[in-house]
Specification:
Number of helices: 31
Low-confidence stretches: 153-187
Largest sheet: 6 strands, mixed
Oligomer: single chain
Strand content: 15-25%
Distance between the termini: 81 Å
Strand order of the largest sheet: 12-15-16-10-17-18
Radius of gyration: 35 Å
Shape: globular
Structural class: alpha+beta
Mean pLDDT: 87
């Protein structure tokens, strides 16, 4: 029994799991650890003649652990078993007996075996996409210009002269050693530091990451990388910068937060568990596509909005499958089965929605398109093309826009998230944290991903990876190597520096030196000696060609709509409702009302040129509107009149216009007991709504007398406004007093802040900028302008119910979010233009204004703004 236990534990050690305790909970294991435990159980079984299928067994493994894994696989093979491994790791592929190379590309352009044979044969095979990387004909280059400000000269033999053979590995190694000795010390002006991290197996670790670099944290599996980066660094920054409800791991302090605007973790968690979640919805490109379809002339005539083209809400979707395109069949004692919807044939939408087409393609056709094809379809729409292009840039050109999220691999989901972040307007000073982003990626895909990450850094951001892939590590600006081993023997920072520095450390460590080994440096040495060096061309956004095309709002604008050609005919005869169906109220009723109004003076010509609204205003548009006729409802015409407050009374008006309630109109499929004549007060106006079905309902002396009285009530109000233009603008009339009143807030919403906060903050700003000028004549905002400045420095948003907001306009990149994250209730930093950032602080309690940090920040910001 003891021998059997010893053998089984030895199998766990053989696959690199010597750092795990036997009582470790399975839920805490990574995918790679769980897979290796299953592999160890097979090793211990002693079976032969078994076919094993392994999918990416090296996920989460350091190169040191790869060798252990390969040893275990070879043992299984030697026992008489057959192993089929799906893998991208160079070392595993090189140790295989037979390789089948699929391609030539991904998705619909793949699905073929382009080459097969031994590793040596594959390296010579024509058409193989993997062979050239195995033979050395192709390689991801090592950059000679690393950040921050490091220039790495390539070894003389790394880039051979034209017509000369590549130097031998031994000479490359000597050149690499000479180069490492001549490297300048790394200098970073801005550093993010974690001090005294003690979470899980971390042993009072200090971590320093130079900002605006591509940095990698690496080390053997289980040495504490995720604990340090995810549990300590990310949780602490997310809690500080974004008020996230997470608890960071134990640590003393984090320095350098003031240099960061935000932190974003791009992990491999699924985009969602629902079939309705997909790359198009996650990246936001589907919202733009829906807006585009809503702007098409066919949509405008039918009255379709962007909501119509959503498969998540009723209206345009297929209601049989509720927009999924599939129906779930529940199976007793078996997993549920999804079958194609027989109503829409998997197209998600009803026939009316699918009839609207852009360049011959319906909205479902767009969802079924691979990203590469969609880029070509929307090549003249910059907003859409930019997001689609980022999906292609990260190697997802083969993925369909509407591909269900649960069918995406972890690596694909992570790249979708990365593309979504890359497509957003860049603010710079963002820290991106990625955990094993190379999972499941081929060498070609690695190069694409690397370019995207380098582009993020060139834009002023910082990218920090947890990674084992040597092709990524060799291209990084800064490497933090943890270890030296896993579990309790790890939890330390072994060394840090450029890849060349890591290799140089590895050569001097171990043995009698007393220094802990760097397994990464040992594995990296061969890569640096083997692969070519090239200067990386930085990404310059200013040098990119200007985006050509049209805005979404301009699509179809050149086509004249029916209401623009003959508005009266459209609204009274040819009108179509909001749902795309013909309306059924009497168009003569609208014509009669408009004709009666047009007999009076004091009104501008009737505006018929809107799709579903007919408007009658005063002689000047500044006097406001008198009638809004809403013509888009199917059964009732909605007439809204606006008159002087107090002109009518509700009860008297309903007696003068005795219209039936909806329940009494048995011939119509509408319901309700409410009156079709309503009255409400809107500020200094009184608003009357009359809903009409036929002309006969209102063709009475009482209604026409009501209309005359309404016209007179509107005219009286116009005369008062003309005699006192500020009558309608109490904020202009009252000035400062208006902003200190509890008026002007959105109706029905509770004010969540003490109004004394405004008085205190106003006093604070007045003392800080005594020569500044406050402008009180806006309804919701008070501006403070500094002397000699054409722009507002400070703005107070005084009618927000949740908090008083202070906005400060200052120099770009001078005050990142990390600098202001602890001030007030909430804080935000937004780039306004090429030279200005807008800092927004929210306050709801007086004690928030007594912070010394707030006073110091306001003074600093005031000096920076005044010096411009």
């Amino acid at each position: 029994m003891a021998r059997e236990i010893e053998n089984r534990v030895q199998f766990l050690n053989d696959v690199g799991l010597d750092y795990l305790t036997l009582a470790r909970g399975s839920a805490t294991l990574s995918n790679g650890e769980a897979q290796r435990i299953r592999l160890a159980s097979q090793l211990g079984s002693g079976l032969c003649g078994v076919l094993y299928v392994l999918d990416e067994p090296t996920i989460g493994l350091h190169p040191r652990d790869n060798r252990r894994l390969l040893g275990a696989l070879h043992k299984l093979r030697d026992l008489g078993n057959t192993l089929i491994v799906v893998e991208h790791d160079r070392e595993v592929i090189s140790e295989c007996d037979q390789i089948f190379d699929f391609g030539p590309r991904a998705g619909y352009e793949g699905g073929q075996v382009v080459a097969s044979g031994t590793p040596l044969q594959l390296g010579k095979a024509v058409g193989s996409v993997t062979g050239p990387y195995l033979s050395g004909k192709k390689a991801i280059p090592i950059p000679t210009n690393r950040r921050p400000g490091l220039v790495v000269p390539p070894p003389p033999s790394a880039v051979p002269a034209k017509g000369k053979k590549v130097a031998k590995k031994s000479s490359r190694k000597q050149a690499g050693e000479a180069m490492a000795e001549s490297l300048p010390p790394a200098v970073a002006t801005q550093v993010l530091s974690v001090l005294g991290a003690r979470h899980n197996n971390l042993k009072d670790v200090n971590l320093e990451i130079p900002l605006q670099t591509l940095s990698v944290v690496t080390g053997p599996s289980g040495c504490g990388k995720s604990s340090l980066v995810n549990d300590v660094l990310y949780n602490a920054l997310a809690r500080r910068l974004h008020q996230a409800g997470v608890n960071p791991g134990a640590h003393k302090k984090i320095n350098g937060i003031e240099y960061i605007n935000k932190v974003i973790r791009v992990d491999q968690q699924p985009l969602g568990n629902s079939p309705s979640s997909n790359p198009a919805t996650y990246t936001g490109v589907f919202d733009l596509v829906r807006n585009l379809f809503a702007e098409l002339p066919d949509s405008k005539v039918r009255g379709y909005t962007a909501r119509r083209f959503s498969f998540n809400v009723p209206g345009g979707r297929c209601e049989t499958c509720q927009g999924n395109g599939q129906i779930c069949i529940e199976m007793h004692f078996l997993p549920d089965v999804w079958v194609e919807c027989q109503t829409c044939k998997g197209q998600r939408y009803n026939e009316e929605t699918l009839a609207v087409r852009y360049r011959g393609h319906s909205i479902n056709d767009v969802l079924e398109m691979p990203c590469k094809v969609a880029v070509e379809l929307f090549d003249n729409i910059p907003k859409i093309k930019r997001i689609l292009q980022t999906l292609c840039d990260v190697g997802l050109d083969y993925v369909k826009l509407g591909q269900s999220a649960p069918t995406l691999s972890g690596g694909e989901a992570q790249r979708v998230k990365l593309a979504a972040e890359l497509a957003r307007p860049d603010t710079g000073r963002t820290l991106y944290l990625l955990d094993e982003p190379t999972t499941g990626l081929h060498f070609d895909d690695l190069a694409k991903l690397l370019n995207v990450m380098q582009r993020l850094v060139d834009l002023g951001n910082t990218v920090l990876l947890i990674e084992h892939n040597l092709d990524i590590i060799k291209a990084a600006d800064w490497v933090v190597d943890m270890g030296p081993e896993a579990g309790h023997a790890g939890g330390q920072v072994v060394t840090a520096g450029t890849p060349e520095m890591i290799v140089e450390y590895a050569r001097s460590a171990g043995g009698t030196s007393g220094l802990p080994r760097s397994h990464t440096g040992e594995a990296l040495a061969e890569v640096l000696a083997r692969d070519p060096y090239e200067a990386r061309i930085p990404f310059d956004p200013q040098a990119q060609p200007a985006e050509e095309g049209i805005e979404i709002e301009d699509v179809g604008r050149a086509v004249q709509m029916p209401w623009e050609e003959n508005g009266r005919r459209w609204h009274t005869q040819d009108r179509v409702g909001h749902d795309g169906n013909p309306v059924n109220w009497d168009g003569r009723a609208l014509a009669a009302v408009i004709d009666r109004i047009e007999q009076h003076e004091g009104f501008a010509p009737t505006n018929w040129s809107s799709r579903s609204v007919v408007e009658v205003t005063g002689a000047k548009s500044s006097l406001g509107w008198f009638l809004h006729a809403l013509t888009g409802e199917r059964w009732l015409l909605k007439l809204k009149f606006r008159v002087r407050r107090g002109t009518f009374k509700q009860s008297e008006l309903q007696e003068r216009i005795p219209l039936k309630t909806p329940n009494q109109m048995e011939e119509l499929p509408i319901y309700g007991n409410q009156s079709r004549v309503r009255l409400s007060s809107q500020g200094t106006w009184q608003e009357i709504e009359v809903r009409v079905h036929t002309l006969e309902e209102i063709d009475t002396p009482e209604f026409w007398q009501f209309l005359e009285d309404a016209i007179e009530g509107f005219s009286e109000r116009v005369k008062r406004v003309e005699s006192d233009p500020n009558e309608l603008l109490p904020w202009v009339k009252l000035g400062q007093k208006w902003h200190f009143l509890r008026k002007g807030f959105p109706p029905g919403e509770e004010i969540g802040w003490d109004l004394n906060v405004l008085e205190r903050l106003h006093k604070l700003l007045a003392e800080l900028a005594p020569e500044g000028k406050f402008e009180w004549t806006n309804k919701q905002i008070v501006h403070l302008t500094l002397p000699g400045s054409g722009r507002h420095w400070a703005s107070l948003l005084t009618k927000k119910p949740e908090a008083l907001q202070l906005q400060l306009l200052g120099p770009k990149d001078r005050f990142p979010l990390g600098r202001v994250s602890g001030l007030g209730t909430r804080s935000a930093v937004k780039t306004v233009d090429a030279t200005n950032d807008l800092v927004t602080l929210s306050f709801n309690r007086l004690e928030q204004l007594t912070q010394k940090e707030l006073q110091a920040f306001l003074e600093e910001h005031y000096r920076a703004a005044s010096a411009r």
